Amino acid sequence: MEENRELCDALKNILAVAPLLNQFTFDDIGVKVCDTEKIIWEMNPKTFSFGKETSLGERLDPNWIISRALQRKERVTMEVGKEYYGVAYVGIGVPIFEGPQLVGGVMIYQSVERKEKLLEISQILNKTIKKLDLTVQQIAAEAEELSATGQELGSISQEASAQVGETGSVVEVIRKIADQTNLIGLNAAIEAARVGEHGRGFAVVAEEVRKLAKTSTDSTKSIRKTLGEIENAVGHISMAIKEVTQVADHQALAITEVIPEVDALAKLADTIVEMAKDLTTDVNAQ
Predict the structure, then answer these.
(1) Rounded to whole angstroms, how far apart are CA atoms 179 and 109?
(2) Does 135 lie in the same domain as 269?
(3) In the Cβ-directed half-sphere of 244, how many Cα atoms lie within 13 Å?
(4) Distance between CA atoms of residues 9 and 76, nearest Å
(5) Domain check: are 180 and 267 in the same one?
(6) What is the pTM of this model?
(7) Same domain membership, residue 103 and residue 138
(8) Quick one: how many helices (H) and strands (E) in the chain?
(9) Is 272 helix (H, G, I), strand (E, B) or coil?
(10) Distance CA 181, CA 187 (A)
């Protein structure tokens, strides 16, 4: 009888405290107290249930957290998926001793719905940030490539402008030759006229020389005009290339400054995911 009285006193002490447990937490918790055979007291949570109004008086199921705590005679923490009782929850089972003798146990449990929602949100956030990070990296690479292409096009444009200038010099030489040829043809015509009948054949040659000189002069004018238009177009292209290169350089610089911030955000997202996973981790078991 003395042993029974002591066992009842131990459980009564737990039962005296158990109704106050939910007042020490912000979460909605459930509490079950058992002896070594059955549930002798319970306080169900307000926001979820296991599909039945009460388990009071039920014999202990070996798979229950409180049962495992009694079997191992030590504190047990478990997270149970919703496939078992329709709701995912985490529970802590603690054995109750009266001296060296095991007399019962107490279990506190709560839903992990908020944890799962936070984990889902954090994983979506993490995925989005990782995608953003990849996009920023791609944009940075493309901006650098665009800048390099712009610089290369700028060099090509300068080379084209220089070649146009060289072509203009050649055209100028041709124009001078044409002027000189025209002068020679004119002098030849004068000499042919001076000698009269004997210079008639020479006069024909002189006329052809003058026609060739005129054709050359007209061609050089046309070429000069075309070269002027090309040079003008190359100038516009060079200005456009410079603007594109400046924008690309600015974009690359801006993205380079953003990349560390995105990387930090990605690390923060990883941390949030880990924190969400650890919400129901038993720190006392570590």
Answers:
(1) 107
(2) yes
(3) 18
(4) 24
(5) yes
(6) 0.52
(7) no
(8) 5, 5
(9) helix
(10) 10
Is residue 273 in some structural domain? yes
Cα-based distances in Å from 37 to 16, 50, 70, 270:
20, 20, 10, 45
- Residue 62 DSSP class: T
Domain limits for position 191: 117-279
Query: Measured on CA atoms in the order 252, 254, 260, 261, is the torsion positive or negative?
Result: negative
Considering the domain architecture, whether residues 216 and 273 belong to the same structural domain is answered as: yes
Write down which residue in 112, 141, 161 finishes a domain. Answer: 112
Phi first, then psi: what are they for 77, rounded to 5°?
-120, 135
Number of domain units in the chain: 2
Domain ends where: 65, 82, 112?
A: 112
Residue 20 token pair: 């106050």
Tokens 């004068």 belong to which residue?
190
Q: How far apart are CA 153 and CA 238, in angstroms?
A: 8
Q: Tell me how far CA of residue 78 lies from CA of 61, 218, 233, in angstroms.
A: 15, 98, 76
Q: Are residues 131 and 155 in the same domain?
A: yes
pLDDT values of the chain reduced to their tens digit, one per residue, 286 residues: 333 444 568 888 999 999 998 888 888 899 999 999 999 999 999 888 877 888 899 999 999 999 999 999 999 999 888 887 778 888 999 999 998 999 999 999 998 887 778 778 878 888 888 888 788 778 877 777 877 787 787 788 777 777 777 776 777 777 777 677 777 767 766 776 777 676 666 667 767 777 776 787 777 777 877 877 787 877 778 787 777 777 777 777 777 777 787 788 778 878 877 776 666 665 455 4
266 found inside a domain: yes
Euclidean distance between CA atoms 89 and 280, whole angstroms:
9
Query: Is the residue at 3 inside a domain?
Result: no
Map residue 48 onto helix, strand or coil: coil
